[in-house]
Amino acid sequence: MVPPHEFIGLIPTWVAVYFLSASIFFTAGLIVYQRVFRLILIGRRMDRFDRPLARLFGSLPNTLGQKKVLKSVSLRTDLSGIAHFLIFWGFLSYLASYILFIYADSIWDMFSLWVLGEFGLKVFVFYLDLLAVTLLLVLFWGAIRRWLLKPSRLVFDLTQKSEAAIILILIGMLMVLTLATEVFYIIGGGGGPHSDAPIARVIADIIGHYDIANEVALTLQAIFWWLHFGLILAFSLYIPLSKHMHIIASPLSFYFRPFETSGTLDTPEDLMTMESFGAATVKDFLDGYSCAVCGRCTDVCPASISGKVLSPMHIVQNMKGYLIENGPPILSNVGSQSDIPSITEKFIQEEALWDCLTCGACVEVCPVGVEHINSI
Hints:
mainly alpha
């Protein structure tokens, strides 16, 4: 995506890009801090800062490699892991393109060419063009699967909420605007590697029969470019307010994973010196931000399958709701932790906790590293 030279004909593009980015990213950072990290700091400390290299390299298969997401793939019954893998790597690919084509090329329009070379830039543009169409097809299939086919793990109330629709629409709009920007750049007579995008070239040839003037085409290209950029900024504000906070939280969850053998419970070392027994207050419930609300944990839970109250997904989501509601009063000194009601008074049914068999099926299948059993 070649940046236009100016913003509304008055301000150099790079000035508008960096000013808007600084403003929006600062706001998004404040939201993340206020809604997530300052609340997490209320919690009791856990010693999981040891062996940093082992933690880092051990987390890569589940983050960059999407190992646990792909683990559930079945060519006969469930291809959603492949779809998520494509969307995740599409996200990383377009993130790289934004750094090159928006933030670098807006300052010096030859930067991406200098970094990648002419052939490398052509290959990257070709790849992004095909990726946009691929992601649109994946998103269309995902929408049909979630709201029409509805496999068992997607029939729950939480998995049918509007958040999933919003993110699918936003990603789809990004892909459409990407193609539209390239199409009208080509129609406007733009040259270089960006004019070789195969799908955009075909669409441009079709639209080109309507004899659109170069100036009109380049104006449309600028409009679509800025709309695309605005949508990227909107994404950064939406993510910390939605379940898609797991984009940030799940890598941290995998990094700070326990090294103990699977099934080992997090138990206190000295019961004699504990102020209270078990988990009861805000400081004990900090594992909800990683949850992607995918339904996998509840779908494999034997208690849930047998019709009992327990739903690991709802447990984790309600933990987050409990923290968001009761954390701020503590931080603002409105009340102390002893004044905060127990989580079982409003957010989680006590019966659901006693339904748990501690079999670990939920933890094993969770693609984002949530530790359901320890919390329960």
